[in-house]
Amino acid sequence: MKTIYLKIALIFITLPLHASIDIEQVWQVSTQEAIHATPLLNKKHIYLSSYDGNLYRVDKKKGKVLWNFETENLISSTAVINQGTLFIGSGDGNMYAIYSKIGKEKWQHNTKDMITRRAIVVGEQVIFASTDGYLYALNKQDGKQLWKHELKSNISADLLYVDDTLYFTTIDHKIHAFDVKTQKSLWSYTLSERVSTQPIYKGGTLYLADEKGEVVALNSKDGSEKWNFNAPPQALLYP
Questions:
Q1: Is the pLDDT of residue 237 over 80?
Q2: For the chain, which end, N or C, has fewer CB atoms within 10 Å of the first or last residue's CB respectively?
């Protein structure tokens, strides 16, 4: 049994340099396998994705499991919620839409391989990548496929959406910009090594770091390099 411990509070205080803090366990929830995805939190609930193939809804104050939704394989990504519906991909190849209050399936859409990264909701579209080598866009109401785009390599981190443009990194050491409206590739940039964390966007600049320690800042419009920095080989950097 794998157990997670969560204290549902974020407290910001000023402490002396050598001060210590006592941490009190408020509650615990156990699942059958490991939890690798970041929990999804809202005002009253926490949604947990587990390698046991279940998505759990937990009362944030009491730690009580209110429901669990079972899939046919592991879940390694964080759920996303939009207008009372949860969207989550599974290792069974399905993207699921789930009613958040009752934990019942609204629809599912099958791909040919595992879905390991978080989906995003853009207007009426649910956009995600499958390890079958495609980006998918589904109608969020009924799960019907709106379009799909073939990838040359599988994605290596969560998708980032800014102003009609989708940014994503792939295991062949690249970051790509993709126009969601036209479904056309805009540009790509190659790093020294794979990027395994979502890029950061700020004021027209993308910041990302690869697993070799190279940090780059790119112009988000055309992918041109603004600057780069090489950290020591032993450093593992995340922007």
A1: no
A2: N
